[in-house]
Amino acid sequence: MMVDVFQGTRAYFPEVKSKIPFEGIESDSPLAFKFYDENKVIAGKTMKEHLRYSVCYWHTFCGAGADPFGPGTRQYPWDDSADPMVAAEHRMDAAFEFFTKLGVPYYCFHDRDLAPEGKSPVDSENRLMSLVARAKERQKETGVKLLWGTANLFSHPRYMNGASTNPDFNVVAHAASQVKSALDATIELGGENYVFWGGREGYASLLNTRTDIELDNMAKFLAAARDYGRANGFKGTFLIEPKPMEPMKHQYDFDAQTVTGFLRHHGLDKDFKLNIEANHATLASHTFAHELQMSADAGLLGSIDANRGNPQNGWDTDQFPTDIYDTTKAMMVVLGAGGFKTGGLNFDAKLRRESTDLEDMFIAHIGGMDAFARGLEVADYILNNTDYSARKAERYSTFMTEAGQAFRDGNMGLELLFEHAEGHGPVATTSGKQELLENLINQALIKA
């Protein structure tokens, strides 16, 4: 029998007695949802089914606020054992208590989040699978599921020059051993996706880099992981997460269009889709909505890392999303693409270093969940209760004519296009109505 709120032998969040409630916009409680009503039906599905929220293991339970200029500022009650495996067990119990009290249906992890590295690949795998067995029990008890798993192929010094793109074959093999174990863990836990985040898959200088070898090796590495996963029962989606820079000067997975081209070039686009992160879009000088739209246009929109960056800061700040204008435009793309299939909204976000109370973990996630819930409501209103879609379609109406459709079908060469231009006469100037549509979104934020 599943429990509403998991609590092991000890409560790590005693100040939160039960599952965070939905109280609506009139509530002043910081520990209540104002917009996220998981049972509210929008466009034929509940908010819970649309948004598929997931808590990330790494920032939430492993990150204590350290930055390049100083150590962590938070002391977690689950990090109370000198034995790293015992501490990992305590961390997992705290995590499932948090998941159930927050009321999210999913979580996700890196292999090293769950279990510390061992003395060898076999020892590391044994440690990981020991914690996987515990996670499987917790999933059964609570009903919380795994959205995706992945391997940390960037923190250890061996990966300073990359993992699958490393110039040392021995490092590539070690990376493959981690992916094999992390895939086994994901399969055992019923994970719906498996993610590759490049981390250090790029270069710092062309002077010492063979990009042709590294890119080809990256493709072969991904294909080997796909083949292993499929052969061992993984039926989910493989995801690539684009990122343009940091820590490498140039990442091979720079943005959505770069990754799309790479996947198609190497014949990987049938198994792989994209996991788009808002902050990475900022680093690539794109908007969040742009990266989502490019992925959707290619039929490769898989999942989302829900966070935001600081436009005044050129690095990966991973802040919790609070901009409803931004979440609205994101959800317009997601709804327009038919919604998530196996993906969801994972909060790859961390508390600010100055936020030191355990309560802040709940407050931050509540704010992010409310921001996307309201974005979902407004996006659905815009798409179904305004003339937004009709105006956008009208702008391209000439391609719906006989001649326009012939061009789109590839049946008009330059000679026929010349004849059409000659016979059509002067071209009228047509307004794009950008300001009107921007105002429409502002109005919908109030009316929806």
Automatic annotation (TrEMBL):
It is an enzyme of class 5 (isomerase). The keyword Magnesium applies. One of its GO terms (molecular function) is xylose isomerase activity. The keyword Magnesium applies. It is found in: Cytoplasm. Binds 2 magnesium ions per subunit. Mg(2+) 1 binds at E241, E277, D305, D348. Gene3D superfamilies: Divalent-metal-dependent TIM barrel enzymes. Mg(2+) 2 binds at E277, H280, D316, D318. One of its GO terms (cellular component) is cytoplasm. Keywords: Carbohydrate metabolism, Cytoplasm, Isomerase, Magnesium, Metal-binding, Xylose metabolism. Its EC number is 5.3.1.5. It comes from the Bacteria. Its cofactor is Mg(2+). InterPro entries: Xyl_isomerase-like_sf (IPR036237), Xylose_isom_bac (IPR013452), Xylose_isomerase (IPR001998). It catalyses: alpha-D-xylose = alpha-D-xylulofuranose. The active site is at H110, D113. GO terms for biological process: D-xylose metabolic process. NCBIfam families: PRK05474.1, xylose_isom_A. Belongs to the xylose isomerase family. Homotetramer. This is Xylose isomerase. It comes from Veronia nyctiphanis. The gene is xylA.
